[in-house]
Specification:
88 residues; alpha+beta; three-stranded antiparallel β-sheet; 3 strands; elongated; binds zinc ion
């Protein structure tokens, strides 16, 4: 099943495989809900539709697919505590 997300604001249109969205977003994600905000104008008010394309429809179609998951480290500065004056 193919999920098509259309942004009414900037008219950006992205196709996803439903199976990819389930894998990335988990089985609780509702397919009629926008999987991601519009990558161009960041709005969440996008139109979601699904279809079962025929092999002819798939000819030359661009589908956005997950490549790899990126794990990102978050860093923070930690201030070291001062030595106590009377530590004896
Ligand atoms: Zn947009």
């Amino acid at each position: 099943m193919l999920i098509t997300v259309k942004c009414p604001g900037c008219r950006r249109r992205v196709n996803y495989w439903a199976a990819d969205l389930v894998q990335v977003l988990g089985p609780e994600h509702q397919l009629h809900e926008p999987p991601f905000p519009c990558s161009r104008c960041r709005t969440r008010e996008v139109d979601v539709s699904w279809s079962i394309p025929s092999p002819r429809d798939l000819q030359g179609l661009t589908v956005r697919r997950p490549v790899r998951q990126v794990v990102k480290w978050i860093w923070r500065d930690e201030r070291l505590e001062l030595w106590q004056k009377d530590s004896g």
